[in-house]
Amino acid sequence: MKYPRHALAAAALLAATALPASAQLKAEVIHWWTSGGESAAAKTLADAYKAQGGLWVDTAVALGEQARSVAINRIAGGNPPTAAQFNTTQQFRDIVDQGYLNNVDAVAQRDGWDKFLPETVLQAIKVKGHYYAAPVDIHNMSWFWFSKAAFKKAGIAEEPKSFDELFADLDKLKAAGLVPLAHGGQPWQDGIVFTAVLAHYGGRDLYLKVFRDRDPKAIMGEDFKKVLLAFKRLQSYTDKGSPGRNWNDATAMLISGRAGVQIMGDWAKGEFAQAKQEAGKDYLCAPGFGPHAPYIIQGDVMVFPKTDKPDQIKAQQLLASVITQPATQVAFSMKKGSIPIRTDVDVSKMDVCAQMGVAAMKDKSRHLANGEIYITPDQNGALQDVLTSYWNRNIPVEKVQKDIVSALRN
């Protein structure tokens, strides 16, 4: 009897990863999931890995940039972890090119990743025909979060349906003595607010001209100037404690009713869940304005540092498989605030915000890649420097436009 080639490959992989019942595949995982909701989500991965014969060794490092730096230094220094968290962007492209990662082609082919992953995710994890990362989740980085308690105090009956309505509501919150916009003044958070304004105020076409095409004419144009002015206007609604604030502390301001609005990725939902608050009851959410609003796809992946140790290779392959399994995906997303990478899972028990995200992912016309898919980490760093300076200082908008052209220059 003849078997398809992919079936033989799968059988070979299963044979290679088979271990005695008493053996455990030890996986040290570097990640930056350190807030309450994030830690609870990470535990679901550890539990799932343990349930299938593995031992998860947790190395949590606060802040993504710091965690990635630790991972890269460990890899370059010859003491790599089993796996490390990165974002679904070009962040790990350099270490792929330098030969520092193992691919997980066997797992991806056996489990049929091509069949259930969105194209934007595949573009990030598949490099030169090989799978160098296992996708963990899908996030939209620019959700709008609204405190129902704060809105009630300010006399706001429903969430805004446009940027004009958003600004009007921010004014009402300010008049009521509340913090209108809860914001953590860190460069990456400033970048999230900018991305939200560019996508939802500037629109899809301008977003792509800036990030994908890096078009100087568009960046110097009047439409982009209006985006920058709207971005700067939002800064006026933050409080004096904003600079340096962690994102989850900003979310806590909504949870307590002290602030009305936050622009942040859907990982913020994990903090609401930790505080026993329910979407629709205690807070409101919107991935944009209107039923056709762009859905900005971001997420997390695990990469697998180069090793020739058989037990570590097996541990990497098991981890890649466990992470992407349907049950793991649902359990993780319910704690993290993300949505599953798969479309073939039961999401009926997930909250109304997640349901909005799942519905958006079914409409490919709404898909918009996170800007970091299109630009290098160096370009992104330069862009964030420009945006943060503009956010915090009185700089002419025309100079900012010129600086962004320079930051995104090839």
UniProtKB/TrEMBL annotation:
Main location: periplasm
Xref: SUPFAM superfamilies: Periplasmic binding protein-like II
Residues of the signal peptide: 1-23
Compartments reported by the entry: Periplasm
Pfam families with a match to the protein in the record: SBP_bac_1 (PF01547)
Gene3D superfamilies associated with the record: Periplasmic binding protein-like II
Keyword vocabulary terms for this entry: Signal, Transport
InterPro entries linked to this entry: Bact_solute-bd_prot1, SBP
PANTHER family to which the protein is assigned, alphabetical: ARABINOSE-BINDING PROTEIN-RELATED, BINDING PROTEIN COMPONENT OF ABC SUGAR TRANSPORTER-RELATED
Function of the protein: Part of a binding-protein-dependent transport system for a sugar.
Sequence similarity: Belongs to the bacterial solute-binding protein 1 family.
Protein name as catalogued: Probable sugar-binding periplasmic protein
Lineage: Bacteria, Pseudomonadati, Pseudomonadota, Betaproteobacteria, Burkholderiales
